[in-house]
Amino acid sequence: MSLKKLMTNSVKYNAWANQQYVNWLSKKSEELLNKEVLSSYSSILKTIDHISGTEKYWFSVIAETAFVENQKNIFLKDEVLKELLDSSNQLSHLINSYSEEELVKKVKVVSPWFESDFSKYEYLEHAINHGLYHRGQIVTIGRNIGITDAPMTDYNVYNVVKEQENKQ
Question: How far, CA to CA in Å, does 112 sit from each of 50, 122, 133?
Fold first, then answer.
């Protein structure tokens, strides 16, 4: 499998998993999704906002564009869920447009927290793993506030679902 195919599939998986979470959480009340618990981000909507904000940050690194941070004090369900879909779809479209040569291009990052000079595909893998990590936290936050019907979004489930869709 080529790097291009692997990265394209990875961003499609990420967008699919985020869509599953949006489908799931859009049926929950705004009050419940803003309920605070002890976690790295204290509510489901704050965690989702962090995921999409981080996807936007890594998009800017990979696309080599300026990043404009959008900090919120109010977390509205429809807005936060839409931003999650927008950020993952934007990342997916960007990677779909890249050649393998573009994916291996190194990009230097200097931030207050770290300095690195990695390939675009490595930053992309980090962004996808970061979202996966926090989606797991959302399941745990949900269980702590009584939401127990989280969707299955494992990578293998994605591949099986897509294979079945391709056969139809």
Answer: 18, 20, 22
Contact of 42 with 36, CB cutoff 8 Å: yes
Enumerate residues 6+ apart whose C-beta is below 8 A from 115.
Answer: 108, 109
Which of 96, 93, 91 lies closest to 131 in space, CA to CA? Answer: 91
Write down the CATH superfamily of domain 3-167: dinb family like domain (1.20.120.450)
| 3-class DSSP state of 115 | strand
Domain ranges of the chain: 3-167
CA 84 – CA 146 distance, rounded (Å): 23
Give me the tens of pLDDT residue by residue for the chain, a chain 168 residues long: 799 999 999 999 999 999 999 999 999 999 999 999 999 999 999 999 999 999 999 999 999 999 988 887 789 999 999 999 999 999 999 999 999 999 999 999 999 999 999 999 999 999 999 999 999 999 999 999 999 999 999 999 999 999 999 998
